[in-house]
Amino acid sequence: MLNQIIDVIGEWNPQLFREAKGRLTPLSLLIVSIVSIVGQFLIGFCYFAALPDKFSKYNRYCQGNCSLPLNINWSLFWLDIFVGLSVITISLLLISGVYLLIQDLAKEEKNGTLNFIRFTPQSHSKILLGKLLGVPILIYWMVILAIPLQLIAGLAAGIPLSLLVTFNIVVAFNCFFWYSLALLVSIIYYKSSLIAWLGGGVVSLYLLIWGSMTLSRYGSPTGSFLDWISLFSPFQILPYLAEATGMDNLDYLTITKLDQLRWYEFSLWQNLCLGIAVYVANVVFASYWVWFGLKRRFHNPEGRIINKQHSYWFSTTVMAIAFGFTLQTLNTNELLSNFYLILFLHLVIGLTLIFHLTPARETLQTWSRYRHQQTHNSLLEDLIFGEYSPAIASLGINFIISGVIMMPGIILLFGDNRLIAVISLLFQSGLLFIYAVVTQLILLRRHRQRQLWANSTLVSLIFLVPLGLDLLGFSPDYFPELWLFVPLPIYALEQMNSIIQFGLAVFGQVLIMSLGTTLLTKQLHKLGESETKALIG
To answer: φ and ψ at 266, to 5 degrees?
Structure first.
């Protein structure tokens, strides 16, 4: 029977057949089944042991005083079992699944077997989907065995069956996103021996933070883009299920946390159907970008996960969504505090695009060699959309897009703080442009470790420059013009009280950008001339 099922799987997806055949052995299924059943028994035992007895003075499950005859709140009891089982199974799915996928794909990439798979007639989506479904298949079986107890507990707590099924579907969508992200991370960083442990650790930390905030009675929206990050946690759906039980005065999973959540002042999470639809749409949106990168990287292991044309859409959509969560209050001081976090996201997105869009020396050699043969594209069009051209113009456009997305909200809602917010955004965009120029100049060198040098230089500019200024005694309170050349310059602008200091900072940044761009242009011309001479010779 088991072999017949595996054969059917093989006809549909050969990669899934390959993964399942090595894992779905009778012994492994027996062990996983025993672990799942024993685990469920222990969970149930722990909760039943917490029920009150005739000696109890106070108990969570007593309705009123714990006096005989005991009046037990069975709905709350079964809700606790449902929540506890759901938290454990979700954590098991995400942490173990992410770890196994990263470890497996990174191992295959290192051993070269993934290159062999690439040459098979299967599409990239079938291969990766086979990995996604096959590698954690024993984890799936362990969780499937726990679904009956989950449904029994949920129904006994008063949760409708349709909502329980919807919750499990949402969890499946969430697993698809995290597993897809794990595949992308493993393809990019497969050379690192600790990447699987790091990936599992990051997911564990994420679930711990956002799970604690969801389950705690004191958790509330942060009023920043971090609320968007929280929407990738399946625990965020649990308050809807708790509300469906109709129980009052729950000390956790309060729906008011979702009621307080806003996006551009729209409350999209008060209604159950709309809230779940927005949650799923958010996960699908993120999964689209992950699979876009997977497709590009799978076919070209040394290629970039995003091209220039799609980077503009990426910057637009990500900043538009994230900035919407920043505008959850009309208090200008709170908005300015939240702006620190959106500036941090702006920095992260900018550095990510610099890392993935900046071409290497060999790519620019190819571009400079054949650029004069292209007659259908102008130089400007090639710089903005070309796959192999320098990325400086494209990165500059991305930095402008990020600012334009936020500018209307800053001007309309930030009150007296709008000028500081706008100028800090402009300074950080200029700083990112300088980082992009420096990165491209380093990658044009002939040094074999130029990528390492570029990364090290960026880290030095981001962290060592402010550390050096602080150690040398150049405090932002007294030398704010110097601190405008470090990320998140908003604090330095708040301390700025001299137009001369500000003018010097503007002049310095413009001068550095001009000199860097000029030097880069000369280097590219020199590279093109050397390639032309080589062809003529």
So the answer is: -95, 130
Angstrom distance (rounded) from CA 479 to CA 488: 15
Q: Check: CB of residue 105 under 8 Å from CB of residue 186.
A: yes
Q: How far is CA 269 from CA 260, 264, 329, 351, in A?
A: 8, 13, 16, 32
Q: Are residues 323 and 232 in the same domain?
A: no
Same domain, 238 and 355: no
- State CA 514 to chain mean position distance: 34
Query: pLDDT tens digits, residue range 110-154?
Result: 887 877 777 777 788 888 998 999 899 999 999 999 999 999 999
Secondary structure (3-state) at 220: coil
Residues 30, 31, 37, 42, Cα dihedral to 10°: 160
- Pinpoint the alpha helices (H) of 327-417: 332-357, 361-370, 379-385, 392-413
72 backbone dihedrals φ, ψ, rounded to 5°: -90, 135
Sequence-separated (6 or more) residues with CB below 8 Å from residue 24: 2, 6, 137, 138
User: Does any domain span residue 8?
Assistant: no
Domain ranges, residue 516: 306-536
Could you give the number of structural domains in the chain?
Answer: 2
Query: For the residues of 237-289, what is the DSSP string, one character each?
Result: GHHHHHHHTT-SS-SSS-THHHHT--BTTB--SSSHHHHHHHHHHHHHHHHHH
Cα 503 to its chain centre, rounded Å, is 38
Cβ-contact 241, 163 below 8 angstroms: yes
Pick from 431, 418, 423, 428: nearest CA to 488 = 428
pTM of the entire predicted model: 0.90
Q: What is the largest CA-CA distance in the chain?
A: 101
Residue 41 domain-assigned (yes or no): no
Q: Identify whether the C-beta of residue 258 lies closer than 8 Å to the C-beta of residue 270.
A: yes
Q: What whole-number distance in Å separates Cα of residue 20 and Cα of residue 167?
A: 26
Which of 86, 79, 89, 84 has the alpha carbon at shortest distance from 242?
79
- DSSP string covering 172-191: HHHHHHHHHHHHHHHHHSTT
Looking from the CA of 271 toward its CB, the CA atoms found within 13 Å total 7
Local structure of 62: helix, strand or coil: strand
The string of pLDDT tens digits covering residues 191-202 is 777 888 999 999
